[in-house]
């Protein structure tokens, strides 16, 4: 008895679900966020490594100076959000491709999104609540004491 293998180019009947096509929007998000991340990351690297003293200039003062301006706060937060959602969506795709058990797949996808959400909230709080003046009594850095006294 011979069995025929269907022609791979033959159209097959697909059942169209109602509602938004989340896979399509996930695919589009990956392309758009990838392009934006390239711009954001190379801008981040250029400012941190090429301008000023380069790698030797990155210290607490450099980070405090960057986080003192809303432009760099938003730059870093947008980069953080895009990167974490992009990575979680990529991991979701890998889980969907390789995990065959439905319950395991659902648990892993939920764990991915919950961990991404936790890191997004934590990172956003760090960027927007960063205060270089906490604990300056023990600091021996003169510029920090002067900056915090001027507040």
Automatic annotation (TrEMBL):
Q: Which residues cross the membrane?
A: 26-51, 71-95, 107-130
Q: What Gene3D superfamilies does the record tag this protein with?
A: Fumarate reductase/succinate dehydrogenase, transmembrane subunit (1.20.1300.10)
Subcellular localization is given as: Membrane
- Pfam entry (one): Sdh_cyt
| CDD domains reported for this sequence | SQR_TypeA_SdhD_like (cd03500)
Record bears the keyword Transmembrane helix: yes
Respond yes or no to whether keyword Membrane is given for this record. Answer: yes
What are the entry keywords? Heme, Iron, Membrane, Metal-binding, Transmembrane, Transmembrane helix
Name this protein carries in UniProt: Succinate dehydrogenase hydrophobic membrane anchor subunit
């Amino acid at each position: 008895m011979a069995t025929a293998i269907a022609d791979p180019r033959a159209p097959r009947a697909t059942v169209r679900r109602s509602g938004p096509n989340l896979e399509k929007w996930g695919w589009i998000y990956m392309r758009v966020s990838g392009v934006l991340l390239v711009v954001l990351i190379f801008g981040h690297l250029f400012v941190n490594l090429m301008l000023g003293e380069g790698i030797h200039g990155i210290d607490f003062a450099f980070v405090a100076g960057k986080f003192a301006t809303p432009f760099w706060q938003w730059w870093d937060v947008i980069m953080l959000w895009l990167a974490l959602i992009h990575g979680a969506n990529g991991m979701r795709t890998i889980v969907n491709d390789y995990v065959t058990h439905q319950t395991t797949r659902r648990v892993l996808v939920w764990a991915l999104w919950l961990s991404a959400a936790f890191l997004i909230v934590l990172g956003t709080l760090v960027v927007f609540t960063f205060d270089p003046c906490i604990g300056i009594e023990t600091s021996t850095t003169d510029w920090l004491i002067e900056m915090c006294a001027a507040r």
